[in-house]
Amino acid sequence: MTEQRIKTPSRECLIDITEQVKTIIAKAVINDGIAVVYCPHTTAGITINEGADPSVKSDIVRFLRDMIPRTYPFDHGEGNSDAHIKASIIGSSANLIVQNGGIILGTWQSIYFCEFDGPRSRKFLVKIIG
Amino acid sequence: MTEQRIKTPSRECLIDITEQVKTIIAKAVINDGIAVVYCPHTTAGITINEGADPSVKSDIVRFLRDMIPRTYPFDHGEGNSDAHIKASIIGSSANLIVQNGGIILGTWQSIYFCEFDGPRSRKFLVKIIG
Amino acid sequence: MTEQRIKTPSRECLIDITEQVKTIIAKAVINDGIAVVYCPHTTAGITINEGADPSVKSDIVRFLRDMIPRTYPFDHGEGNSDAHIKASIIGSSANLIVQNGGIILGTWQSIYFCEFDGPRSRKFLVKIIG
Which residue is closest to A41 within chain B, CA to CA? Predict the structure, then answer.
């Protein structure tokens, strides 16, 4: 298992971690199997989406902010229930197929760490099995 | 594969199954790999979220009930289309990283069975691969 | 890894791929483990939900269309940000447990390829590890 630290710059943002994940996979001894990219936080998640046009990730962030408003009458006293809900909707991990020592991604796919309650120091984990 | 039965007490609730999953992993012969916690039902799911403050899980349940109202003009005659939609949004399984015979969870993470059409007798499955 | 091509008939639809996935698993040499069904597109996803009554899948499609309207003021110029958001909410892959050469599905569960920006020629990938 490999642990990678990242810093998120704002309350809600998608950080492209594709290159970091590719580097981890390239160094691994297993070159055929499944990789799990795992987020150990409860107000953040992992998703796979378009990496070409940056407006896709800003649209995702902005739409989720409107769909799950922080101003909803939540009970949880920390003011971040919206972030917990987004984390469960996006999911805490992503599966990747590993083949010939590299990950199989579609033409437009990038891997994102989704911050919903930043800015913070965060980490993600990568585990490969063959 | 291990099958675990649970009873859900109300129509919509999150049941903390972390200890049950930990016990299953502790008994397994594989102590390094990936575990999949799988829900074989179509009106329930599995998520990972905060386990410390119970208001987080009640906020998730209540917000999803408002976001996906049972009163929407659905076609499906059983009156539980809201539950099917929540199941697909939350997801039918969660990945866990297994290391040294235990699961890697973040400080605040717990594993939840998400009931959206209870109360019912349910089950979840755990499969570990190394 | 097996790649399977499909054609989607409309902009938003759920295509039942259960039989295709079962056939792929039946031909595989691994008969005990995990299978990942992976979608390499950024405006489509994979989910597991009810396969008995077709109104469940049409309710999912219709409700998601209302919840994430294409008419929202998105920045992304291709007019399909709604589809990208749906893809991240549904998820790009599903885990299946493989036992005795077959997949373990609940009584009512089917596997769906979720098209959110069709009609198109698409594909999904299946990777099995033991």
Answer: B106
For residues A110 and A47, is the Cβ–Cβ distance under 8 A?
no
- Selected for mutation to probe chain B from C38, C55, C128 (highest B CB count within 10 Å) is C55
Position B103 scores a pLDDT of 97
- Which pLDDT belongs to residue B48? 98
Residue linked to tokens 């995990």: C34
Contacting residues of B for C33, CB less than 8 Å apart: 127, 129
DSSP-derived secondary structure letter, A83: H
Would you tell me the crossing angle of helices B81-90 and C54-67 to the nearest 10 degrees? 70
Average pLDDT over all residues of chain C: 97
What CATH number does the domain containing A120 carry?
Answer: 2.60.120.460
For the entire predicted model, the pTM comes to 0.98
Instruction: Give me the helices (H) in C28-129, please.
Output: 54-67, 81-90
Answer yes or no: do B95 and A38 touch at CB < 8 A: yes
Tally of domains in chain A: 1
Residue range(s) defining the domain that contains residue B122? 2-129
Two tokens at C44? 């489509």
What does the pLDDT look like over A65-83, one tens digit per residue? 999 999 999 999 999 999 9
